[in-house]
Write a structure and sequence with these properties.
Layout (H helix, E strand, L loop, with lengths): L10 H27 L2 H18 L4 H12 L1
Helix pairs in contact: 2-3
Length: 74
């Protein structure tokens, strides 16, 4: 019997395909996130961005900002 004429590509086939696509998406996203997290240049840029943000908000003064910025650039 054909069970409605859909055969192998009925709802079960479509759901399986959707699950495979979702799993592939998360695997690729996980790999790319881990690659970026281990890159020291990106970490340094993020630290400088955070430092700039703290200085702009007034959380740190100019002396502390310059001292930490010098340490991060070295």
């Amino acid at each position: 019997m054909m069970y409605g004429g859909y055969g192998m590509f009925g709802w079960g086939g479509i759901l399986g395909l959707i699950l495979i696509v979702i799993a592939a998406y998360f695997i690729i996203k996980y790999i790319s996130d881990n690659k970026n997290a281990s890159d020291p240049v990106i970490k340094k840029d993020n630290a400088i961005d955070l430092l700039n943000e703290r200085y702009a908000k007034g959380e740190i003064d100019e002396e502390e900002y310059n001292k930490k910025k010098k340490i991060l650039k070295d």
